[in-house]
């Protein structure tokens, strides 16, 4: 029994034990340790599955799995959160976009350029992902701040329905492009250009090992999201005592939820597989919007909570800056340490302005 097998099971059992209660004392640190272990185990099993099924299916599997569980978490909090949950979907989706497009991309470029100086990726596939993210975030999080049918930064029911359908259609189109029609655009690129073939990798795991890793991956992701929610009251109390804005709680939870994908992206970048890292980063951002908004739109029919989706002025400025810099990074098909620094600087600004708005 390896630690990657035992840790997700222990984390899931501890989640079942503490669900619905607020941990205190030593239990907080025990759950934090199990949370960290579940994150590392999730990365291991995600890489095993990805090795078996190949890119870009591996990155897509992890992105969709994390997002589906994240959506379930948002809906459960909306049901029990009342008026305080009005901006939860917006804050979570925007935090996910910034973490993915600025933080994950920046770290991937950093580790991809430290050794090789220049990191190569496929501009066609990466540009398509970035365009999808920009379209989704504009249709769902930017437009509500400018529509006039409803007061405040929110959609009318018909507008929300349109945004939900458009998001789902764009996400399905993105998946079909990534996995069927133009899969070669999303395959890892070798140093100096050229696509890596399946023969460039070690022997893939067996079908039994892959199935076991897939099950343990789902268990680990459920444990990560569940323990993040369980630890959130402790985080919220610490944030309140520190005098920080309430939005910090959502960012911390989003960071915890996206940690498995972040670590997987960094490990791929260290192996000079930058395209895999970008598939994880931008694919996660696409899934976070493309799946979250339709699910929230459906849930809003039964949950009597005002849904505020429109971004504020500071968020809009950060979003425009991030999309512009990302476009300039993607166009050449290669990047240097400078691009890594730009993305990480924007991510640092996002974190700083969340703490000090």
Task: For this entry, give a set of tags.
mainly alpha, transmembrane helix, A middle domain of Talin 1, single chain, 2 strands, 357 residues, globular, two-stranded antiparallel sheet, NaCa_Exmemb, membrane, 1% strand, Alkaline_pH_Ca-Antiporter, 75% helix, transmembrane
Description:
Its main location: membrane. The chain crosses the membrane at residues 26-45, 57-81, 93-114, 126-146, 158-176, 211-228, 248-266, 278-302, 308-330, 337-355. This protein has 357 residues and is an all-alpha fold. It has one domain (3-355): NCX, central ion-binding region (A middle domain of Talin 1). It is 75% helix and 1% strand. It contains twelve helices and two strands, in the order H-H-H-H-E-H-H-H-H-H-H-H-E-H. The protein has a two-stranded antiparallel sheet with strand order 1-2. The longest helix has 35 residues, at 207-241. It is globular.
Any chance you could write out the topology, listing elements then pairs?
Blueprint: H1 3-18, H2 26-53, H3 57-81, H4 88-116, E1 119-120, H5 123-142, H6 157-181, H7 207-241, H8 247-257, H9 259-270, H10 274-302, H11 313-330, E2 334-335, H12 337-355
């Amino acid at each position: 029994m390896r630690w990657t097998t035992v840790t997700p099971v222990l984390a899931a059992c501890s989640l079942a034990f503490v669900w619905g209660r607020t941990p205190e004392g030593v239990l907080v640190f025990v759950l934090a340790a199990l949370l960290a272990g579940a994150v590392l185990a999730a990365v291991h099993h995600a890489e095993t599955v990805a090795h078996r099924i190949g890119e870009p299916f591996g990155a897509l599997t992890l992105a969709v799995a994390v997002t589906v569980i994240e959506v379930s978490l948002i809906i459960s909090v909306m049901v029990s959160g009342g008026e305080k949950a009005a901006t939860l979907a917006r804050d979570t989706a925007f935090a996910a976009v910034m973490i993915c497009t600025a933080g994950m991309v920046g770290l991937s470029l950093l580790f991809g350029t430290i050794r090789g100086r220049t990191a190569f990726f496929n501009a066609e596939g990466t540009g398509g992902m970035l365009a999808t993210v920009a379209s989704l975030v504009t249709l769902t999080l930017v437009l509500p701040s400018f529509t006039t049918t409803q007061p405040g930064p929110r959609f009318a029911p018909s507008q929300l329905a349109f945004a939900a359908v458009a998001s789902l259609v764009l996400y399905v189109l993105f998946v079909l492009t990534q996995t069927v029609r133009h899969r070669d655009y999303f395959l890892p690129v070798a140093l100096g250009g050229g696509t890596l073939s399946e023969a460039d990798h070690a022997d893939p795991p067996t079908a039994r090992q892959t199935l076991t890793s897939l099950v343990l991956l789902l268990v680990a992701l459920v444990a990560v999201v569940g323990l993040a929610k369980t630890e959130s009251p402790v985080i919220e109390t610490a944030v309140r005592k520190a005098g920080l804005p309430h939005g910090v709680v959502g960012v911390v939870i989003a960071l915890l939820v996206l940690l498995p994908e972040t670590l997987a992206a960094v490990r791929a970048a260290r192996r000079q597989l930058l395209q895999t890292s970008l598939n994880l980063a931008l694919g996660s951002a696409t899934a976070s919007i493309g799946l979250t908004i339709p699910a929230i739109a459906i849930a809003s029919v039964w949950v009597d909570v005002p849904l505020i989706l429109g971004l504020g002025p500071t968020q809009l400025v950060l979003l425009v800056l991030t999309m512009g810099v990302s476009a300039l990074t993607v166009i050449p098909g290669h990047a240097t340490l400078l691009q890594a620094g730009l993305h990480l600087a924007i991510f640092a600004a996002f974190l700083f302005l969340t703490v000090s708005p």
